[in-house]
Design goal:
The chain is α+β, with helices and mostly antiparallel strands. Helix content is 38%, strand content 21%. The protein has helices at residues 13-27, 35-46, 60-79, 116-127, and strands at 49-53, 85-92, 96-103, 131-135, 141-147. The chain has a five-stranded mixed beta sheet, with helices on one face. Strand 4 and strand 5 form a beta hairpin. The longest helix has 20 residues, at 60-79.
């Protein structure tokens, strides 16, 4: 709409607010729902396919942060890349857990600048001793890493 609309057309702000409210509601973790199930539910609601390789860590704190990163990657895949698929790769070493998020959408024109969502995610990860890296070339990739602490718990 923003790209193709004319100046005479009125912005559908109420429709956008409704869509945002729906996505926020969809993002809330239901009582008996596991974080990965929530991600798949959100993906289905947005029409984006999510392909996951690897195993989600057993730590609930790590799971929540990874799913939050996935939700941010999903949001950006829809709004900036017009992607159809989000690819998530989960890996584990002796010292850390990592998650890589890529999509099949349009490649970024230049370097990615962190807005509110990515900036907020970075702060949360760093607060837990983790890190975040954003790659623009050759394709977009969001890489988040969290250390293992105290035998698997944050």
């Amino acid at each position: 709409y923003l790209v193709g609309g004319s100046e005479e057309e009125e912005l559908p702000l109420e429709q956008w607010r409704g869509s945002i409210a729906m996505l926020r509601k969809e993002a809330e973790l239901r009582n008996s729902e596991k974080p990965l199930e929530m991600l798949q539910r959100i993906s289905a609601a947005t029409g984006i396919s999510t392909q996951i390789a690897g195993t989600l860590p057993t730590s609930e704190d790590v799971q929540k942060l990874f799913v939050e990163a996935a939700a941010e990657a999903l949001t950006n895949a829809i709004s900036h890349a017009r992607a159809k698929t989000l690819y998530v790769t989960l890996t584990e070493t002796e010292l850390s857990y990592s998650a890589s998020f890529r999509n099949d959408g349009t490649r970024p024109d230049g370097e990615i600048t962190e807005g509110g969502g990515l900036g907020s995610l970075r702060k949360k990860l760093e607060r837990e001793g983790g890190s975040m890296e954003i790659k623009s070339r050759p394709d977009f990739e969001l890489l988040v890493t969290l250390p293992k602490k105290g035998g698997d718990e944050l």
